[in-house]
Design goal:
There is one protein chain. The chain folds into six domains: 46 residues, no CATH class; 90 residues, Alpha-Beta Plaits (2-Layer Sandwich); 252 residues, no CATH class; 86 residues, Distorted Sandwich (Calcium-transporting ATPase, cytoplasmic transduction domain A), CATH 2.70.150; 125 residues, HAD superfamily/HAD-like (Rossmann fold), CATH 3.40.50.1000; 105 residues, 3-Layer(aba) Sandwich (Calcium-transporting ATPase, cytoplasmic domain N). α9 crosses α10. The radius of gyration is 33 Å and the shape is elongated. It contains 26 helices and 29 strands. The protein starts with 17 loop residues before the first strand and ends in a 5-residue tail after the last helix.
């Protein structure tokens, strides 16, 4: 009976369906396989069939489903549950689950097929987690059409929510616990029988009976508790690869089968206790590793639980109760004392105190004034407040933190990939070495099986593979609690190797809340008029300097037009007169145009047409942790600021670090590249839109959470409490991480180097090797878990 070209299942006798492949007719088993295969082939993706490593699932059920199956996912009310929208460009993003993937060819097919669709900006498929990160333009292509496209090539898409992670990890934990319970219970019984056999405490006539009892007791451990190991090894071998479970499975099942044969034939030695103990101890180390990742994953999922289910919406002084997901941008909500805020928004009330410990790691209450942003999940302390909604559910800061944290828990760093390659090479070497050991002892007239098993077990690179991912998960989770969110794991690994850390000044080392120190005016204008003109113009700007004029009533000034001059300032028209307001870079020849030399330290200059009529000096206070940060950082520090005034000199002198001022965004980038050429690895901490260029250039980029969205988009690390001390925390954690990684790798490699010759020469028996290898893995995992402690 022939098999289906698409799913490899037998073709029914009455089926005559075919597809065209390179001019040849290929038989398929049903209309579902025919439809899916035609979509794949007509799209030019026939490479899928060439490189796939397992058969596709039979898509009969998918083919019978209605065309409008996914139409409900286009509804905004439904998308609020799992879709994130970028407010700057309205780009939609979502994590989706994809069922039916079996190998890398499946992931390749989905990525290639979807990226050809208009409106799909990108899709990254994670085969391990059966998930994909999708970015698309909703005005060009609806989500239902994307889901139908995935279905058309034989896979089942569905929305994925971060809140599902906790359930997934708990289910995995339950499976581990059941497998460990079976392994632990039966291993103890097998061990008791083994000791009785080893030390001849029973009569010879009962030895044969005890062997059969050991066989029956060890079978559940090997066949049930050891099933995840067998499945993992099979998947690796079916893909033409190896992982660390391959030698483990060879060792366990060869030991069990050989012992079972020895029991049946009543000849030779049995090592049931080694096989069962190996399964039990290996599962224990895997379970401990899983607990570390579970803690990090549940921390991310629990963040979303801070969002209230209901909200109290104000409409014409009437309070109504609505579902929090139904809130819209611009809605006014009321939050009572002791309740958590359901959405990000602007504080309408004059003043309040909130707690943001879960968001920023800051345990002390924070004062908020009218116009300040109140974040979803914040706990209101002392009064009833009113908030104007700006972001809801998945677009809130809280949800973004959870998303980034989940991403770092699932991602693999470059160092992790190197460790995996080392473990893979070590696994191949172990397999060849065990074969050589077996043949060598057989030539010497001994039973080489047990020596080969001892080599497989003793030198299995389990500890090497566990050394990094456990430590990364623990370290990133510990930093999140301290208000430092890791977006890219390489920043955590390499922070302790930084030679220079560059800081922006405004909003980074300083509060960014300016006050006027001195106002200079020409004879053509008085101070009051000058300030009103500047205040009116600055209302159209989001630059931090604009905060220095928030207290001025400029309602009498009517702006006829407003034009932004990139990285320099604003050009406005008032009563037909053009005014230019901005930084010193507006001057073509600053020294000649300045009416007075004392004006040269101002941050803002005002031109009427082409004549400078005024200048304003502003002051800005240092953030509370700036000095502490400089004292704790062991590397060289430098300020790269766009401000040209004496304020930069003063702040640099207070902090005791060098500085470069009056830099344009491009000049900052060039200066940072010079530092890289001179010193090596350089990090940059910034917060403004103009910092995005230099952040992209830095080896490690850090952004303040209160800063511009573009700067955070470019950042490897986000400081949730917007305090520079987070940089010092990152460097310290990186030092701890790398110290523990070195300990883990030294231990893993040192143990294998010691155990290898002992196993080859028969000094290390299989049961000794089991204890040694398992203890090695447990030590590595336990050592990594130390990073969870502050």
């Amino acid at each position: 009976m022939s098999s289906c070209y698409h799913c490899n299942e037998p073709i029914p006798l009455d089926c005559r369906l075919t597809i065209q492949v390179n001019g040849e007719n290929k038989a398929v088993c049903c209309t579902g396989c025919q439809a899916v295969a035609n979509v794949i082939l007509q799209g030019g993706f026939d490479g899928y069939y060439k490189y796939r490593q397992s058969s596709a699932e039979k898509p009969v059920e998918q083919a019978n489903q209605p065309d409008n199956l996914y139409q409900a996912f286009d509804a905004p009310s439904v998308q609020e549950e799992f879709v994130r929208i970028d407010p700057t460009n309205q780009q939609h993003a979502a994590d989706i689950s994809i069922q039916g993937m079996h190998c890398a060819a499946c992931a390749w097919l989905i990525e290639k097929y979807l990226t050809k669709l208009d409106g799909v900006d990108s899709i990254r498929v994670n085969l391990t987690n059966a998930r994909a990160e999708l970015l698309w333009d909703n005005s060009t292509i609806p989500l239902s059409q994307i889901f139908n496209a995935i279905k058309s090539i034989g896979y089942l898409p569905s929305p994925f929510k971060i809140s599902q992670i906790e359930t997934e990890y708990k289910n995995i934990s339950k499976n581990y616990q059941k497998q460990l319970a079976v392994a632990g219970l039966f291993t103890m019984q097998v061990m008791m029988l083994a000791f009785a056999l080893y030390f001849d405490v029973i009569e010879e006539s009962f030895a044969y009976f005890f062997r059969w009892i050991s066989l029956l007791l060890s079978a559940p451990v090997v066949l049930y508790s050891g099933l995840p190991l067998l499945t993992s090894a099979y998947r690796a071998l079916s893909k033409g690869s190896v992982n660390m479970d391959v030698p483990v499975v060879f060792a366990i099942y060869s030991t069990f089968i050989a012992s079972a044969y020895a029991t049946y034939s009543n000849t030779g030695e049995v090592y049931f206790e080694s096989a069962t103990m190996f399964v039990f101890l290996l599962l224990t180390s895997r379970y401990l590793e899983h607990l570390v990742k579970t803690k990090a994953a549940i921390t991310s999922a629990n963040l979303l639980k801070l969002l209230p289910i209901v909200a109290f919406k104000l409409d014409n002084n009437t309070v109504s109760t609505v579902h929090a997901n139904e809130l819209k941008i611009g809605d006014i909500i009321q939050v009572k004392q002791g309740e958590q805020v359901p959405a990000d928004g602007k504080l309408i009330s004059k003043h309040c105190t909130v707690e943001e410990a879960q968001l920023t790691g800051e345990s002390l209450p924070i004062d908020k004034n009218q116009g300040d942003i109140i974040f979803a999940g914040s706990l209101v302390h002392n009064q009833i407040i009113q908030v104007e909604v700006e972001s809801v559910y998945l677009n809130t800061r809280l949800a973004q933190i959870a998303k980034h944290q989940e991403r770092i828990n699932q991602s693999k760093s470059p160092l992790a990939n190197v460790a995996d390659k080392m473990a893979k090479q070590a696994t191949i070497s172990v397999l060849f070495l065990s074969i050589a050991t077996y043949l060598g002892w057989e030539l010497l007239g001994e039973n080489g099986l047990w020596f080969a098993v001892a080599v497989l077990v003793a030198t299995c690179p389990c500890a090497l593979s566990l050394a990094l991912p456990t430590a990364i998960s623990a370290a990133s989770n510990a930093l999140k609690v301290q208000g430092v969110l890791i977006r890219e794991s390489h920043a955590l690994e390499q922070a302790d190797k930084l030679k220079v850390i560059a800081f922006d000044k405004t909003g980074t080392l300083t509060t960014g809340k300016f006050s006027r120190a001195q106002v200079h005016c020409s004879e053509d204008i008085n101070q009051d008029e000058l300030l009103k003109i500047v205040a009116a113009a600055e209302k159209a700007s989001s630059h931090p300097l604009a905060t220095g004029f928030a207290d001025i009533d400029s309602s009498s000034i009517k702006l006829e037009s407003v034009e932004t001059i990139a990285h320099q300032g604003l050009r406005v028209s008032i009563d037909g007169v053009e005014y230019t307001i901005g930084s010193r870079s507006l001057f073509s020849r600053a020294e000649r145009l300045l009416p007075n030399a004392r004006w040269q330290n101002a941050q803002i200059y005002v031109f009427r047409q082409t004549t400078c009529i005024g200048a304003i000096e502003l002051t800005d206070e240092l953030k509370s942790s700036s000095i502490e940060c400089m004292q704790e950082l062991p590397t060289q520090k430098v300020i790269l600021s766009g401000d040209h005034s004496l304020l930069v000199d003063k702040i640099a002198a207070t902090l005791g670090i060098e500085f470069h001022k009056g830099l344009t965004p491009e000049a900052k980038r060039q200066k940072l590249q010079q530092l890289q050429d001179e010193y090596g690895s350089v990090a940059m901490l910034g917060d403004g839109v103009n910092d995005s260029i230099v952040l992209a250039t830095a080896d490690i980029s850090l952004a303040m959470d209160e800063g511009a969205e573009l700067s955070k988009y470019k950042a490897d690390v986000i400081l949730l409490n917007s305090q520079p001390i987070g940089v010092a925390k990152l460097v310290k954690m990186s030092q701890r991480l790398n110290r523990i990684l070195k300990q883990n790798f030294v231990w893993a490699i040192g143990y294998n180097a010691l155990a290898l010759p002992l196993a080859v020469f028969g000094i290390l028996t299989p049961w000794m090797a089991v204890i040694g290898m398992s203890a090695s893995s447990l030590i590595v995992v336990s050592n990594s878990m130390r990073l969870l402690k502050r």
